[in-house]
Design goal:
459 residues; single chain; mainly alpha; ubl conjugation pathway; 13 helices; Ubiquitin Conjugating Enzyme
């Protein structure tokens, strides 16, 4: 299933996401996992880098050091993060989102109780196994051992890696004690110390998070089972198991969970249900992602008035976008064919109209150039991040509007309503976007879907 992310590293992190990430980071530092080291990026709170090292000797990766990053959505923990490997390993592809049950490729199976450590332990288990999946690579063990030896040199060539993980610049400097080293990143430090005034609450949250994190590490990784095993009937809930906060609204127990995993904020449950409704594969009643039992209480479905208001708002927005698109096309056509048009426009007005349409067309071109192909990683350049669109529906709307504009211009050129030189820039931009898509070697299914979309637009 394709990912359905609701935010990117370019979107600002919500306060709930910052609190939850701070708790997860504290739990990771307390657990002292000897094979995983995590540090937040210096550029974004929603981007963390990690290192997999000291792997088992019976695997071809034992002498390697593997760098990757986690991209959290702005709505975390209600939406799953994306995981990208950077160091070649012969096991997982680099520079692409990995398809795991705990990533944004499967939002329907996401559990907000899963911590960052749970996610990385699951990744480590998948990494050292021979399971196949989207993003996995089939390679002989000899090649993987060679890449493991070369991984140190590859990592040393990365400026981001050397800044965040200086102790892993070469094998001789790396020790097992680095897994418990303090975070050196500025943003990481602010995450940890952002709410130090809440000393008592933070200590309680650390105890609960450390207990959950220690339970989540086992030889056979099953996050759902581990979370259920962490529930103890003798422990009272000290924090919301979704946002990990202990200082805001009172905790409730809306399901059959007991112990430290039973307390949750009503607002967190409501937000989780709303998110789950958007990604669920069926119409089953909302249930707890830990005990898998339906929530207590009743679900109020929107009435006819709310439904009509929502549909009217969406229809109104789409009508405005369509009218603006038609107006832009008509202005461009009139300005391009001013001599044969009944409207006698002066040269300054023609230049102004063509320039305005060119700016709008350039904006649309940059958006598609940065955002295509769908589900790609956000650009590393900060100047391009505002143009990046990760939401599939919004990106599909931009593609449809661009395709409709090009189709109308081609029809005008063929019918003689507009000369071909005025179409040339738009045609060249469309060819560049098509070339970029086909250079990624799309599958036959992907090409078929694109063809059907274009056919619907033309008809």
């Amino acid at each position: 299933m394709a990912p359905a992310s609701e935010g990117t590293a370019s979107a600002p992190a919500s306060s709930a996401a910052v609190r939850r990430l701070r708790r997860d980071l504290e739990a990771l530092q307390s657990s002292g996992n000897s094979q995983i080291l995590v540090r937040p990026s210096e550029d974004s709170l929603l981007q963390w880098h990690f290192v997999l090292h000291s792997l088992p000797d019976d695997t071809p990766y034992s002498r390697g050091c593997y760098h990757g990053k986690i991209l959290f959505p702005s709505t975390y923990p209600h939406a799953p993060p994306a995981i990208v490997m950077i160091t070649p390993s012969g096991r997982l592809e680099t520079g692409k989102r990995l398809c795991l049950s705990m990533t944004d490729f499967h939002p329907e199976s996401w559990n907000p109780a899963w911590s960052v450590e749970t996610i990385l332990v699951g990744l480590l288990s998948f990494f050292t196994s021979n399971e196949r999946g989207y993003g996995s690579v089939q390679a002989p063990d000899e090649h993987r051992r060679k890449l493991a030896l070369e991984s140190w040199q590859v990592n040393a060539a990365s400026s981001v890696f050397t800044v965040l993980f200086p102790e892993f610049r070469n094998p001789t400097n790396s020790t097992d004690s680095t897994s418990s080293a303090p975070v050196q990143s500025g943003l990481g430090s602010s995450l940890v110390s952002g709410e130090r005034s809440e000393t008592n609450e933070a200590n309680e949250a650390n105890d609960a998070s450390e207990s959950n994190a220690n339970d989540s590490r086992s030889d056979s990784v099953d996050p759902a089972r581990d979370l259920e095993a962490a529930v103890s009937d003798s422990d009272e809930p000290t924090e919301c198991w979704i946002c990990r906060d202990t200082t805001s609204e009172p905790l409730i127990q809306p399901c059959l969970c007991r112990g430290s995993m039973s307390g949750v904020h009503a607002s967190c449950v409501e937000e989780w249900i709303r998110h789950h409704r958007r990604t669920a594969t069926n119409d089953a009643p909302p249930q707890c992602s830990v005990c898998h039992q339906p929530y207590h209480g009743s679900e109020r479905m929107p009435g006819v008035r709310d439904f009509v208001r929502h549909k009217c708002r969406d229809f109104g927005v789409q009508c405005i976008r369509t009218l603006l698109l038609v107006l832009m096309l008509m202005v461009y056509q009139v300005c391009a064919q001013a001599q044969s048009s009944s409207l006698h426009l002066t040269l300054p007005l023609r230049i102004l109209g063509i320039s305005a349409c060119a700016v709008l067309g350039l904006y649309r071109f940059v958006v598609l150039l940065v955002s295509l192909p769908p589900y790609r990683l956000p650009p590393t350049s900060r100047s391009l991040l505002p143009f990046f669109i990760s939401e599939p529906k919004l990106l599909a709307l931009h593609i449809a509007e661009a395709s409709a504009s090009v189709t109308v211009m081609v029809f005008w050129c063929i019918s003689g309503f507009m000369s071909w030189p005025y179409f040339a820039p738009f045609g060249a931009a469309a060819m560049m976007l098509m070339a970029k898509l086909f250079c990624r070697q799309p599958s036959a299914d992907c090409i078929g879907r694109c063809g059907r979309i274009l056919l619907c637009i033309l008809l």
